[in-house]
């Protein structure tokens, strides 16, 4: 029996995640079966279970993949353009485009997450990782002398994410995108003006 090289395994895993993400967005998490994902990828259902022991684990892998990509892109933007770039429409529109690339979080997925201890643990951990990443970025800019701050970098990071999450929530409820973007620009501008010297 031939050995499967690690690169092939990683590519197969990535392909399963990609197809599952599309199906979860189109059909919803609850209505998507592992068989649907296998057919979309072009493999057997058993092959899917070689990589993911359950649909819940696959959901967590999708969220992890999306979060890693988003964090990498945000860090690149902020390293190139600085922390004040957060208070721009360009940045918020970019974040919205990244959000749209993710699976649509509907009632089925929210219920699955709420009922799934591993998913809830991942959500809490992911939130704390985002806070830590933004805090580290702010602290790094302070050490370089690029900015000075009047407030705790942790509080600033938590405030930025709270604003983002609140505005994302309003968009999920049907708020006008332009008004939400303008709110981001205005409030982030105030927050950064107060927080940074």
What does this structure look like?
The protein has 197 residues and is mostly helical. The chain folds into two domains: 1-53, Homeodomain-like (Arc Repressor Mutant, subunit A); 62-195, Orthogonal Bundle (Tetracycline Repressor, domain 2). It has nine helices and no strands. It has helices at residues 6-27, 34-41, 45-51, 55-81, 89-101, 107-115, 117-144, 153-172, 177-195. Helix 1 packs across helix 2. It is elongated and about 60 Å long. The protein starts with 5 loop residues before the first helix and ends with a helix.
Quick recap:
The chain has helices at 6-27, 34-41, 45-51, 55-81, 89-101, 107-115, 117-144, 153-172, 177-195.
Write the layout of secondary structure elements.
Layout: H1 6-27, H2 34-41, H3 45-51, H4 55-81, H5 89-101, H6 107-115, H7 117-144, H8 153-172, H9 177-195
Helix pairs in contact: 1-2, 1-4, 2-3, 4-5, 4-7, 6-7, 7-8, 8-9
Class of the largest domain in CATH? Mainly Alpha
Residues in β-strands, percent: under 5%
Structural class: mainly alpha
Low-confidence stretches: none
The arrangement of helices and strands along the chain is HHHHHHHHH
Tell me the count of domains.
2
* CATH fold category name of the largest domain: Tetracycline Repressor, domain 2
Spatial shape? elongated
Main β-sheet description: none
Number of helices: 9
Label the CATH architecture of the largest domain: Orthogonal Bundle
SS elements, strand count? 0
Question: What does the average pLDDT come to?
Answer: 84
- Global Rg: 19 Å
Percent helix: over 70%
């Amino acid at each position: 029996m031939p050995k499967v090289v690690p690169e092939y395994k990683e590519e197969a895993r990535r392909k399963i995640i990609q197809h599952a993400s599309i199906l979860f967005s189109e059909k919803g998490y609850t209505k998507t079966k592992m068989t649907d994902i296998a057919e979309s990828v072009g493999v057997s259902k058993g092959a899917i279970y070689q990589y993911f022991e359950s649909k819940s684990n696959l959901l967590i892998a999708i969220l992890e993949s999306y979060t890693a990509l988003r964090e990498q892109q945000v860090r690149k933007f902020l390293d190139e353009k600085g922390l004040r770039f957060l208070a721009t429409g360009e940045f918020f529109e970019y974040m919205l485009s990244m959000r749209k690339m993710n699976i649509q979080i509907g009632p089925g997925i929210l219920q699955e997450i709420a009922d799934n201890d591993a998913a809830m643990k991942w959500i809490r951990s992911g939130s704390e990782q985002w806070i830590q990443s933004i805090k580290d970025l702010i602290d790094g800019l302070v050490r370089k002398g690029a900015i000075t701050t009047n407030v705790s970098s942790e509080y600033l990071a938590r405030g930025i994410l709270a604003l983002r999450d609140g505005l994302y929530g309003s968009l999920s409820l049907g708020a006008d995108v332009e008004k939400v973007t303008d709110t981001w620009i205005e409030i982030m501008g105030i927050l950064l003006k107060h927080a940074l010297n």
